[in-house]
Amino acid sequence: MRGRSENLIVKKQPVLITNAAQSPDDQFRSRQIRYVTMMSIRAACLILGAVLISFRVPLLPVWLILCAAGMVFLPWAAVLIANDRPAKTKAERAADALAREAKPQATLPQHSAEATEYLTIDLEPTETGERWIPVEPREREKG
To answer: Do residues 78 and 38 touch, judged by C-beta distance below 8 A?
Structure first.
């Protein structure tokens, strides 16, 4: 018996070397399986209720109430479970908290309205086709 157990080939699972979460596709697939399983149980409750009514079992109202509760509760629970994602790890929560922290924003220097110089362009079309040459605001005051 001892020699026989030593000759068995044991399939080893790969060693997990990271803390990586389950892939989104795997998560989605497992949620689909849970949803279909719960909805199948709901369908079984409906069929069981019909069978119980036809056989007139003892305590029929109690069984029908349990079947009806299953048919009402299971779709609600199935949707909640199907839309739920796994809980975040501490590292994910810490990264979210860092992203939400207020970051200092660069502020622009404040100037009063009087100290700010504005360039006003007031151009009249000319008939001779002369080109307008911009003049610096300070030169206009002098000239």
So the answer is: yes
**Token reading at 18:** 């990271």
Note the residue count of the chain. Answer: 143
Question: Which residue, chain included where needed, has tokens 């009402």?
Answer: 72
CA–CA distance, 2 with 20 (Å, rounded to integer): 39
Helices of type H across 84-111: 90-100
pLDDT per residue over 22-55, tens digit each?
A: 788 888 898 899 999 999 999 999 999 999 999 8
**Mean model confidence pLDDT for the chain:** 78
For the chain, the maximum distance between any two Cα atoms, rounded to a whole number of angstroms, is 115
* C-alpha distance from residue 9 to each of 1, 14, 42, 120 (Å): 15, 15, 42, 88
Dist. CA 43–CA 17, nearest whole Å: 42
Q: How many angstroms separate the CA atoms of 70 and 74, rounded?
A: 6
Nearest to 73 by CA among 38, 97, 122: 38
For residue 10, pLDDT over 70 is answered with no
